[in-house]
Known about the structure:
- By secondary structure, the protein is of the alpha/beta class.
- The protein has a single domain (5-118), classed as 2,3-Dihydroxybiphenyl 1,2-Dioxygenase, domain 1 (Roll), CATH 3.10.180.10.
- The protein is built from 2 helices and 7 strands, in the order βαββββαββ.
- It has helices at residues 14-25, 69-80; strands at residues 5-11, 31-34, 37-43, 46-52, 62-65, 95-101, 107-113.
- The strands form 2 sheets. The chain has a 4-stranded mixed beta sheet, covered by helices on one side. Strands 5-7-6 form a 3-stranded mixed beta sheet, with no helix packed on it.
Amino acid sequence: MIFEMTIQVRVSEFPVGRTWYEILLNKEPDFVPHQGFAEWEIIPGCWLQVAKGVPVEGSGPLRLGVTDIEAEKERLVKELGIEPFEILWRKEVPVRWGTLKDPWGNGIGFFEYIDKDEERVTP
């Protein structure tokens, strides 16, 4: 039985990468077991690990559900200085989504449910 998950991205400059992901996730790491490694619990039982290392070309995207993709895009453009990413949708898909790359080439995506009744937001 699967009860928990982690996903790892690698960054070549760990202090810069840690700060970048703190801004992206809007919080400090939940667990830092040793130098060059940090973990954030995104939602209960779902962890993102950022590790010092050689990024894997084409990894991801890690997709994160948000309640307002336009506001998230605006925040990241302002706080991380990223290029604005395109927000896409198709009538047969129940979400709008957009994808960007971190400074190390890891794919990061966001999605927002069109039907707000589909959202499962936990504080």
